[in-house]
Fold:
Amino acid sequence: MRDLSEILEEVESRIAAACRRAGRNPDDVEIVAVTKTHGAEVVGEAVAAGLRIVGENKVQEAAWKKPASASGPEWHLIGHLQGNKVRHALELFDCIHSVDSAALADRIDRIAGETGASPRILLEVNVSGEKSKSGMKPEEVESVARHIVENCRRITLEGLMTMAPFSENPEDARPCFRRLRELRDSLQNRLGIGLPRLSMGMSGDYEVAVEEGATWVRLGTVLFGERPKVKSVRATADSDDGFTGGGLDSYSGAGPTVRVLD
Structure:
């Protein structure tokens, strides 16, 4: 298996080339290392290789992985956030990419006020319109962004996030990424605020995303290989935060266990 540092050097070279094609500065693009279903040792490898941001899809996975991992990186939540996990998310994550409603933003702001947190967030936009994807409709974004700016004093809105439809051809994602950038640019002008972050692009299409303005690309498979498979065991959540303690889900091979609450 190739060394992560070698893989990262190749990925960063591709990002730099995409930046040159778009007339951008490579320093404006950062990798979010997606460690979903990988163990804490992978986080350590990522940090040792120089990666500074770790991305997780689930609050409950980060709850055991972060304490067991190397210190230093920022932790970003890139998966869907349920309202009953907001308090834990604010304890664990430096930035939340997946805020998809004014109601969720209000809950984040309220709990941040109770805990003293100052959350950084992105609004998740379902640019493609796919029913299987989370995120608000593009036409809803301005009203939600305006609501946050005017009413959510604890929150810093930093930008937008999207997921492009899966395709074997990375070029198929270009219209999705371009529309998110244009939407961000329009919001900045209409609301008079800066929104510096665009979280878009994954292992199969990150170069196109960079060409279209991505500042955070969410990379997992291209860095760490195929994810270990997880055996899910549904549990009953009987508390306000959705956690009941313990964990039953087993990763392939040796490693920690975590309960998955869908």
The two ends are 33 Å apart (CA to CA).
